[in-house]
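Here is the promised in-class demo. Please do not try to memorize the tokens; focus on the logic of going from shape to residues.
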């Protein structure tokens, strides 16, 4: 089990990647034609979807890497590059195409329910969050370690639920500028985490660089 500060760091990293505030404009657009009750149901399904996706990755992610014969250090570098691309998009107040392309966003508008796809995945629990969970699970072993990450995932899902439920109020009071400022701050944090992933991956693959 890691120090408490490490689990806080993992949680902050996930929060920066998932960035529920950044998803507010898309959520409002995609649920514009829904009634208040339908929108609440969409929020509930989205938060549950995020929880299930990330918990599944937490407990089975390493098995997937082993199945494909991918080393954790190679995955650190790949995950770091992925996060860095997302961070650059966030610093420019844009939605990264890693999460969702314009074509996918357009197609999703015609779907009856957008809770699981594209909101839960790939908008919130997308490739970046999945990569982070796999790398975090590899940092320790035992019940306590997995319990600590599980608590972080549950807290994150609760924040997603609260943010989306209050999306109209947040959008009204913060406006697009306020949401963009928050996204840029999260993007800066995410960029630092991405560089750390890449650096640790290079050190693992090339010990001479340490």
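The designed amino acids, position by position:
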């Amino acid at each position: 089990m890691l120090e408490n500060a490490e689990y806080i760091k993992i949680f902050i990293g996930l929060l920066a990647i998932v960035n529920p505030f950044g998803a507010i404009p898309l959520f409002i657009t995609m649920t514009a034609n829904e009634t208040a009750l339908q929108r609440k149901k969409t929020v509930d399904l989205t938060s549950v979807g995020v929880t299930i996706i990330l918990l599944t990755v937490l407990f089975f992610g390493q098995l997937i890497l082993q199945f494909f014969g991918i080393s954790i250090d190679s995955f650190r570098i790949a995950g770091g590059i992925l996060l860095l691309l997302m961070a650059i998009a966030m610093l420019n107040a844009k939605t990264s195409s890693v999460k969702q392309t314009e074509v996918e966003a357009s197609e999703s508008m015609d779907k009856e329910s957008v809770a699981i796809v594209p909101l839960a995945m790939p908008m919130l629990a997308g490739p970046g969050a999945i990569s982070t969970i796999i790398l975090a699970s590899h940092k320790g072993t035992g019940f306590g370690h997995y319990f600590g990450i599980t608590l972080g995932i549950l807290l994150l899902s609760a924040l997603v639920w609260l943010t989306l439920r209050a999306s109209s109020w947040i959008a009204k009071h913060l406006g697009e500028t306020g949401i963009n400022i928050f996204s840029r701050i999260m993007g800066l944090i995410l960029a630092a985490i991405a560089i750390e992933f890449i650096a640790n991956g290079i050190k693992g693959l090339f010990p001479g660089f340490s």
